[in-house]
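Long-time lurker, finally posting.

We've been working with Sec-independent protein translocase protein TatB (Parvularcula bermudensis) and I want a structural starting point before designing mutants. I don't trust myself to interpret raw outputs, so I'm hoping someone here can both generate the structure tokens and explain anything notable. Sequence follows.
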Amino acid sequence: MSLVPQLGMVELFVLAILALIVVGPKDLPRLMRTVGQTVNRVRKMAEDFKSGFDEMAREAEVEEMRREIEALKKETVDDTTLIKELRETSQAMENPVPSTGDRLPRSEGA
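Top reply, 14 upvotes:
Generated this for you. Predicted structure of Sec-independent protein translocase protein TatB:
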């Protein structure tokens, strides 16, 4: 939906005749040049606004991605710590328990 109304050939012709009558043939080229420059400035401002808005949206997306990466890093660190603990437990289970049979008092019945 455009904010500027669509003008047909008839409307443009009526506007041209009206401008010729109101401004006069002498000043009409200067008026058209001024109108053209103003339209170009408005277009440039709209383009700058849109590009600024797009840049803010990109920055917001980058910030969100940075947060997600930080969360993944934290999960990775947690997983690494868990793996290290599991390895230590596994190694402790693989090491033989020292024999303490010689240190136990012998029962009289044996």
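Before you design anything, note these points.
Residues 9-91 form one domain.
Residues 28-94 form the longest helix (67 residues).
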